[in-house]
Amino acid sequence: MPLEPYILTCGIRFLGMALNAACGLQKVCRKFKPHLLMVFAQLGYTFLYFITEASFNHGMNPHVYVTYRHFVSGLAMLPFAYVLERNTRPKLTLRLLMEIFVLSILGVSLTLNMYFASLNYTSPTFLSSVVNTIASLTFVMAVMLRLERLDVRNPHGIAKVVGTLVSLAGVTAMALYKGPVVKNLWGALIHLNGKAKIHEDWFKGSILTIASCITWSIWYIMQAVTLKRYPAQLSLTTWMSFVGGAQSAVFSALVAHEPKEWIVGFNIDLWSILYSGVVCSGLIIFIQLWCTEEKGPVFVTMFNPLGTLFVAFLAYFVFGERLYTGSILGGAIVIMGLYLVLWGKEGDNADPIKSKEPSSVDSQELKEETKDATNYYGGSGDGKKSLDV
């Protein structure tokens, strides 16, 4: 066989294999797009913990930070919402405006002010661990409100219940059991500048964290309801940012009286506001809204435990903080629970497809109705023809 045709044949075969592999990868990415986006969201939140802690240690007021953060988010998302959803955005009604106002309280002004205030009394690792209870709270609320299907006779339904309990057990282990310290092989690669704050009031911090988890869970549930009437994620993100920023500004004005508390210099305070506003309150909230509409609120909250793992390992490898074996053990348990819940959720995706197919009972009823209509029009299969007779 001549060499040139052989090379050409091999090249065509290789190109075909590459195209098949690319198509297969595209299908996998399309199928697991919500999963990949939620992992990206948790990575974004992981950096947020350390950036905000450094900013608060530098002297940034948490309430002023929440206010600036959401105004930045609103300004960043406004052009995209206006252009991309100009023709698809539903008309705002008074009821929708009230829902957005309540959503902004639950997800922005009230929740985040309590959440970041608690960071003054606790630590990023503790905060990210307790926040994982949102997944269990949201699951219970969603089942009670029938936003989440649960059939305990089905293996997928059992997997969701067991997975939620396993994840909660893993989070509890991370929070309560420390175990021996894992030896750090090197020092801190990055040092957080600023006045190191001694976390003294863990009771007050715990109360604030738990309260924010409860309101956050209600926020996730209410998102799913609002998105059915207002399926414009970019516009909803923009509205919540501006309304929540205004609400937080009113509260911040009552607690932050000194003008110097509102002044932001070209330092870590500015970078924390820009990062949290554009990435966390803008891009990530949009991702969560999209995933909520696609998969439901329980799917979104079940990825929160990944944030705890990312925070623990980043604190250990980069910032030189201590890592305990309890965190590793609890993290492994959390991952097991997460996989169980996600497998259970995949069962929900298969059910609607089956429900769309006509059942044998429906087919039999359709045949009987057709037969009755045929007899009524004189036994002919053509109704128009029978009427002409």
Automatic annotation (TrEMBL):
<protein>
    <recommendedName>
        <fullName>WAT1-related protein</fullName>
    </recommendedName>
</protein>
<feature type="transmembrane region" description="Helical">
    <location>
        <begin position="202"/>
        <end position="222"/>
    </location>
</feature>
<feature type="transmembrane region" description="Helical">
    <location>
        <begin position="96"/>
        <end position="119"/>
    </location>
</feature>
<feature type="transmembrane region" description="Helical">
    <location>
        <begin position="298"/>
        <end position="318"/>
    </location>
</feature>
<dbReference type="InterPro" id="IPR030184">
    <property type="entry name" value="WAT1-related"/>
</dbReference>
<keyword id="KW-0472">Membrane</keyword>
<feature type="transmembrane region" description="Helical">
    <location>
        <begin position="268"/>
        <end position="291"/>
    </location>
</feature>
<keyword id="KW-1133">Transmembrane helix</keyword>
<dbReference type="InterPro" id="IPR037185">
    <property type="entry name" value="EmrE-like"/>
</dbReference>
<feature type="transmembrane region" description="Helical">
    <location>
        <begin position="234"/>
        <end position="256"/>
    </location>
</feature>
<feature type="compositionally biased region" description="Basic and acidic residues">
    <location>
        <begin position="350"/>
        <end position="372"/>
    </location>
</feature>
<dbReference type="GO" id="GO:0016020">
    <property type="term" value="C:membrane"/>
</dbReference>
<feature type="transmembrane region" description="Helical">
    <location>
        <begin position="35"/>
        <end position="52"/>
    </location>
</feature>
<dbReference type="InterPro" id="IPR000620">
    <property type="entry name" value="EamA_dom"/>
</dbReference>
<feature type="transmembrane region" description="Helical">
    <location>
        <begin position="6"/>
        <end position="23"/>
    </location>
</feature>
<dbReference type="Pfam" id="PF00892">
    <property type="entry name" value="EamA"/>
</dbReference>
<keyword id="KW-0812">Transmembrane</keyword>
<feature type="transmembrane region" description="Helical">
    <location>
        <begin position="125"/>
        <end position="145"/>
    </location>
</feature>
<comment type="similarity">
    <text>Belongs to the drug/metabolite transporter (DMT) superfamily. Plant drug/metabolite exporter (P-DME) (TC 2.A.7.4) family.</text>
</comment>
<feature type="transmembrane region" description="Helical">
    <location>
        <begin position="157"/>
        <end position="177"/>
    </location>
</feature>
<feature type="domain" description="EamA">
    <location>
        <begin position="36"/>
        <end position="163"/>
    </location>
</feature>
<feature type="domain" description="EamA">
    <location>
        <begin position="204"/>
        <end position="342"/>
    </location>
</feature>
<dbReference type="GO" id="GO:0022857">
    <property type="term" value="F:transmembrane transporter activity"/>
</dbReference>
<feature type="transmembrane region" description="Helical">
    <location>
        <begin position="64"/>
        <end position="84"/>
    </location>
</feature>
<feature type="transmembrane region" description="Helical">
    <location>
        <begin position="324"/>
        <end position="344"/>
    </location>
</feature>
<feature type="region of interest" description="Disordered">
    <location>
        <begin position="350"/>
        <end position="389"/>
    </location>
</feature>
